[in-house]
Amino acid sequence: xLTIKSLPIKKHQVALPLLVIVLSTLxxxxxxxxxxxxxxxxxxxxxxxxxxxxxLHTNFNHYALNISAVVLLWALHGQYYNFLNYxxxxxxxxxxxxxxxxxxxxxxxxxxxxxxxxxxxxxxGAIKDIEHNDKTGFILLIAVIxxxxxxxxxxASDSVTSLISANVAIDAHLWGMFGGMFIGVFSLLRYYxxxxx
Length: 197
Known about the structure:
By secondary structure, the protein is mostly helical. The chain has nine helices and two strands. Strands 1-2 form a two-stranded antiparallel ribbon. The model has no long low-confidence stretch (mean pLDDT 91).
């Protein structure tokens, strides 16, 4: 049973998820045309948009969904978070999301939101569960991969599209997942190679 005492509340576990929430909140209230991922401007050299666009949201519902996911993932896997690994997973997932969308999803001309990155963080956390012999890691891993495959085959949920007042960029979920999977598998291989199992 989840209790306050069981939550990962050490500074190194809380600091970066809290920073993501703060930056997303500031971006929500002080929206700027210089921040969203924009395909045409990205190719013209405004590469920062591949990072800053993740902190923006289409409306309050989109913002609230993504912030809630940051909190839920922290409650689920925050015991594994530290300054280095959360930063690496976040940045790599942001890069794979933005470049994946740019290279393989030409129909997406603009993109905002944390969902691609959050899929990366989620799958990394599931792999960390597996690394720590937590059997639920396999269930979570299969569930995330299954969700992404379902989206690729059947498209996004109409209710979510309506809720966020925009098309759900399901390809961002795919590319973000690959970023988290890359870091997770790398960590898992290092762990097994270390002989700790």
